[in-house]
Write a structure and sequence with these properties.
heterodimer, A: alpha/beta, seven-stranded mixed β-sheet, 8 helices, 16% strand, B: 469 residues, alpha/beta, 2 domains, 15 helices
């Protein structure tokens, strides 16, 4: 997994609550068997008109906002389906962090496994960030994962929560599957102890 | 005396494989369900690492999402969907995973076939790369959706790294009035707590109104836990659970069955156990529900009025409601009943089982679908399709002018060609009304099979209780 240590970037404002994974990447693009090229369909239906032309008023299409790595979104970001295509599309476009007041559980898990940092802030900080970005779209925020600090464009520092294990995995680029495979003896002894007769290969 | 525990804690405790300081617990998974959309990249990952599927005997696959609902004698027209379905088939063969494929007479929606075949059992942990895995919680299982990275982890190790969720008791007492269904219970709950209300929690649904539900109805309730923000929702097993499972192909038999029942009877929450969160709903007061907006929390009684953004305090909340009403092209303050519609969809892992089809048929019998409406009825599995045909339900649907199709997710997720056209309105028995969920530009009203069927007849959003007998 890609490591995450520090990041400085402008914040792309998307002041919409409950942005669901069907908006992040519509289901009809999930027929792929690969992970690649999903950035082209990121926010597809907000981004393109009926003829497939980019909508100039959608922020992702605005030349001023290219290369921004932090998305500033409304409450409960990533609700809906479990599709990991959502964080794949976001990271392929270039986002490395998303700031909101809250994240849907499955999206948060998926994001953390793809080097995409979900940063939860209070309602006050959230409102202030939208305000600061409106006043100066060029202003940048800084993220330091080791100290769990978000530095707002006005210099204010706020701490954000991240569980210790996810933090360690992001800082070190730890592969979670490798970590689980290292615990194979515990898995074997659990299986021996439970000795389940359940078998999907053969009806009972 | 041991500390009283909830069923959620009991399920957790029996599945912890290992715990290390500072790390999430390693949790064992009893049943891993796999479908074509969220698995191909996980199988590729296994191949890249040279890993096998650790427990094919705890894994089961089917194809449902990008699967056409046209007659099975026809080929899959969309080449990308065809490649995805064939990839799953190839992956199952290569890794030795049992599979109800496209042509299999037992194919169906993954959350329908699990219970139908007795694969889903009380006391299990169940995962699938699909957020509606919560459905299986109806059997007293801890069942939740996972991403593709986690699908790969479970395929390789049969385990996941997990943190304990909060416990959230949803107590629903009383008796549902005629015309009020399980779908209305869950839509009412989500309207109350919002789509983020259960974030970080597992719901336990309990109370007399929940006990009175059939297993199919319990699945409808648990299915939409995720729309309330909870990854899982469950109901303690009881006689209804055992009766449903008895004799199912993968359910234990003989002495194993007796032993299983004894084990399952220890699952319900102990007296005196406490929850992190709790909430009560009065079943007597519930109305048939319908959504008006672009998330499942935007729900009102079918006789209600569209809310006004002007009444909201929070600016982002106000803007989000304004955006939703603009997308839906609805006026604040107006009743939703009477709103013209174009399409009715009866199906999905929420409402595609026998009792759902019977409910829709009871309304349609002897009536015609409004000529302005296209109605599609999609059974949850090929088994349900056969049973419905044996009961003559297909005749009722066809005679009324509805389209009776083969099993799959269909217009719930609009990946298989079954979809709304831009601007069209549907009344749908599915679970999500997000922008474009049923087709780009499509507008969805979520409701029960009764409301959906009644609306199909009149051509406008209709409370089934107002139809003349």
């Amino acid at each position: 997994m890609a490591k995450f240590t520090t990041l400085e970037s402008r914040l792309m404002p998307m002041p919409v609550d409950n942005i669901d994974t069907d908006q992040i990447i519509p289901a009809r693009f999930l027929k792929t068997i690969s992970k690649e090229g999903l950035d082209k369909q990121l926010f597809n239906d907000w981004r393109y008109d009926a003829n497939g032309a980019p909508k100039p008023d959608f922020i992702l299409n605005n030349p001023e906002w290219q290369g921004v790595a932090i998305l500033l979104a409304g409450d409960n970001f990533g609700c809906g389906s479990s599709r990991e295509h959502a964080p794949w599309a976001l990271t392929q476009w270039g986002f490395r962090a998303i700031v909101s007041t809250s994240f849907a559980d499955i999206f948060k898990n998926n994001a953390l496994k793809n080097g995409l940092l979900p940063i939860e802030v209070s309602r006050e900080v959230h409102a202030k960030l939208f305000d600061l970005v409106a006043k100066n779209p060029q202003a940048t925020a800084k993220i330091d994962l080791a100290t769990q600090t978000l530095t707002l464009p006005d210099g204010t520092k706020v701490e954000f929560p991240v569980d210790g294990f996810s933090k360690h995995c992001l800082l070190e680029g730890v592969d979670e599957l490798g970590y689980i495979l290292n615990q194979l003896p515990a898995i074997e002894s659990y299986e021996a102890k439970t000795d389940s007769k359940f078998n999907t290969l053969q009806p009972a | 005396m041991p500390t009283p525990r909830t069923i959620i804690e009991k399920l957790w405790d029996t599945h912890v494989v290992a715990e290390r300081d500072g790390a999430p617990s390693l949790l064992y998974i009893d049943l891993h369900l796999v479908h074509e959309v969220t698995s191909p990249q996980a199988f590729s990952g296994l191949r890249e690492r040279g890993l096998k599927v650790r427990r094919p005997q705890n894994t089961f696959a089917t194809t449902d999402h990008s699967t056409p609902t046209t007659p099975r004698s026809l080929p899959i027209v969309d080449p990308i969907a065809k490649a995805q379905v064939e990839q799953l088939e190839a992956n199952c063969r290569e890794f030795g995973i049992p599979y109800f494929g496209f042509q299999n007479p037992k194919q169906g929606i993954v959350h329908v076939i699990g219970p139908e075949n007795g694969l889903t059992q009380p006391g299990m942990t169940v995962v699938c790369g699909d957020s509606h895995t919560a459905t299986h919680g109806a059997f007293g299982a801890l069942a939740f959706g996972i991403g593709t990275s986690e699908v790969e982890m479970v395929l390789a190790t049969q385990c996941l790294l997990q943190r304990k969720s909060k416990t959230y008791q949803v107590k629903i007492d009383g008796t549902l009035r005629p015309g009020v269904t399980a779908k209305d219970i869950i839509l009412a709950l989500i309207a109350k707590i919002g789509v983020g209300g259960g974030t970080g929690a597992v719901f336990e649904f309990c109370g007399s109104a929940i006990r009175a539900l059939t297993m199919e109805e319990r699945m409808t309730v648990c299915n939409m836990s995720i729309e309330g923000g909870a990854r899982a929702g469950l109901i303690a097993p009881d006689d209804a659970t055992y009766q449903f499972l008895s004799g199912k192909p993968f359910a234990p038999k003989g002495a194993d069955w007796e032993a299983a029942i004894a084990r399952w009877k220890s699952l319900p929450t102990d007296d005196g156990a406490t929850y992190d969160l709790s909430l009560s709903l009065d079943a007597n007061a519930l109305e048939p529900m319908i959504t008006f907006g672009t998330n499942p929390g935007m729900g009102i009684p079918v006789s209600g009025r569209v809310p006004d953004p002007a009444s909201m305090q929070d600016p982002i909340e106000r803007d989000s409601l304004t955006k939703a009403l603009k997308y839906m092209d609805l006026q604040p303050g107006k009743p939703l009943a009477g709103q013209p519609i174009n399409v009715v969809f009866v199906g999905s892992c929420t409402n595609s089982r026998m009792s759902d089809l019977r409910a829709a048929a009871s309304v349609l019998k002897g009536r015609k679908v409004n000529p302005k409406v296209r109605m599609m009825v999609v059974p949850g599995s090929m088994e349900i399709k056969r049973q419905a045909e044996a009961e003559g339900l297909d005749r009722i649907f066809r005679d009324s002018g509805a389209d009776w199709r083969e099993a799959g997710c269909s217009m719930c997720i609009a990946m298989n060609g079954d979809q709304l056209q831009p601007g069209e309105y549907s009344v749908s028995t599915s679970n999500r009304n997000f922008e474009g969920r049923q087709g780009k530009g499509g507008r969805t009203f979520l409701a029960s099979p009764l409301t959906a069927a009644a609306s199909a007849i009149t051509g406008v959003v209709t409370d089934a209780r107002t139809l003349a007998k």
